[in-house]
Design a protein that fits this description.
By secondary structure, this protein is an alpha+beta fold. Helices cover 30% and strands 20% of the residues. It is built from 8 helices and 10 strands. The strands form 3 sheets. The protein has a 4-stranded antiparallel beta sheet, with no helix packed on it. A 4-stranded antiparallel beta sheet has the order 3-2-4-8, with no helix packed on it. It has a two-stranded parallel sheet with strand order 9-10. A hairpin with a 7-residue loop joins strand 5 and strand 6.
Length: 193
Amino acid sequence: MVVAKLGSPLAIGLSKDEFYIGSDATPFIEYTKKVIYLNDFEMAHLKVGSEIQLTNSKDNKLVKFEVEELDLNLESIQKGVYDHFMLKEIFEQPQAIANALRGRIHKESLEVQLESIQQHETKFLNAKRIIILGCGTSWHARLVGEYMIEKLLEFLQKLNMLLNLDIEILLLIKETSLFLFHNLGKPLIHLLL
């Protein structure tokens, strides 16, 4: 089996006679605690009974990798000791940020590499306006994002919290970058498609 990473996270779970593939270790944590996290442009060749080969798809050179031993269990993925999932999310934010950045920080230069942003860098830099949207608890992520961008840019158009928005109108505006924070998942994705 061959798996490759570009953009989205990719984790490989290792056990004696099996491999588990996922965007995170949580789906296979009950089966193994050994995991390899791939970086962008890395490709893993997996075969039971053989050593794992990790190569860089840009230059076709072998890549050294570390097998991490996770200090995580099935209960920690669930609500655990917290009365509410919101409390759990608040107290787990530092680890969530570390997990989100895993595989996105270049080891030598320590630069954060967000492939999905780098692919559209010119569009972002040439945008005449930036719109940042957020609904529900994602509105808070939008506020932080707006604050950070506002410190870097002077032309940010502010918007209040929008619960109902005609996406087609926004898509007709030329030279606009749209950043959307949402915690509902599929319904909004279907709306945008």
